[in-house]
């Protein structure tokens, strides 16, 4: 692990500045090189409790993982990660520590969240298109360790906080009687190392997002063969497999 990135750290409070001037503790060096210390995190965690439905975070809480920078430095040893669906931030801390850092997305090339059952891979869209630098997209195809030859599928894991409104009869009728974090994902195709415009899952949007005529024709074939299926993420995984 290289520590050449330490000069890019932003210190959030005087206590941290004093700590850095006397030399960062070794357990913080890796995280400090690619992020800044997070303050006020306790209040953010409270959003996931009480009568608020849903959560602003991906998964069930802190998970083991791995982060890779654009310098190909890797951070993994005894680190835990948490992805914020609302703020689109990556938080990290050492196992057993209460000190939390937020990753600098301009340095982050990709990161993985590892659970017992699966691996989730996020990439910085700027890897392919500099104008999209800092946007973190989750790989949806089954072989997450590679970019598929013809077309790949990515997802922006996004959520919004929706406050309960007793005057909104539509929400009341739908049974929404609490504040809630509502997932609002968007999807992207990657063709020829270029991302499509973001789209929601319906037939019109999906076909419009595909630029290559031959790929679009294959997509039409898949839709015609599976017109009885719901267009959800499983449908999309089948589409990607069919085209590739």
Q: Briefly, what is this?
A:
The protein is an alpha+beta fold and 244 residues long.
What overall geometry do the principal axes of the alpha carbons give?
A: globular
- What percentage of residues falls in helices of 4 or more residues? 10-25%
Terminus-to-terminus distance: 36 Å
How many domains make up the 3D coordinates?
Answer: 1
Beta-strand content estimate: 25-35%
Low-confidence segments: 1-28, 45-49
Give the biggest beta sheet. 12 strands, antiparallel
For the CA atoms, what is the radius of gyration?
A: 20 Å
Q: Overall mean pLDDT score? A: 81
Query: H/E order of the elements?
Result: HHEHEEEEEEEEEEHEEEHHH
SSE-based structural type? alpha+beta
| Total of DSSP H or I helical runs spanning 4+ residues | 7
Counting DSSP E segments of at least 2 residues, the number of strands comes to 14
């Amino acid at each position: 692990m290289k520590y050449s990135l330490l000069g890019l750290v932003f210190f959030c409070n005087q206590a941290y500045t004093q700590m850095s001037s006397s030399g960062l503790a070794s357990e913080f060096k890796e995280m400090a090189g690619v992020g800044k210390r997070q303050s006020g995190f306790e209040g953010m965690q409270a959003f996931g409790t009480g009568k608020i439905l849903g959560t602003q975070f991906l998964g069930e809480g802190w998970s083991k993982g791995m982060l890779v920078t654009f310098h190909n430095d890797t951070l993994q040893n005894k680190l835990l990660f948490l992805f914020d669906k609302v703020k689109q931030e990556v938080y990290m801390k050492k196992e057993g520590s209460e000190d939390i850092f937020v990753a600098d997305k301009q340095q982050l090339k990709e990161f993985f969240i590892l659970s017992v059952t699966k691996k989730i891979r996020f990439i910085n869209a700027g890897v392919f298109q500099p104008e999209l630098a800092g946007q973190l997209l989750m790989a949806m195809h089954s072989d997450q360790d590679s970019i598929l030859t013809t077309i790949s599928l990515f997802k922006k894991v996004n959520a919004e906080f929706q406050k309960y409104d007793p005057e909104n009869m539509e929400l009341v009728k739908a049974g929404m009687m609490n504040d809630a974090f509502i997932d609002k994902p968007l999807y992207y195709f990657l063709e020829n190392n270029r991302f499509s415009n973001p789209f929601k899952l319906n037939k019109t949007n999906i076909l419009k997002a595909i630029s290559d005529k031959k790929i679009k024709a294959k997509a039409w074939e898949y839709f015609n063969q599976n017109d009885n299926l719901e267009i959800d993420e499983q449908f999309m995984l089948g589409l990607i497999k069919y085209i590739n």
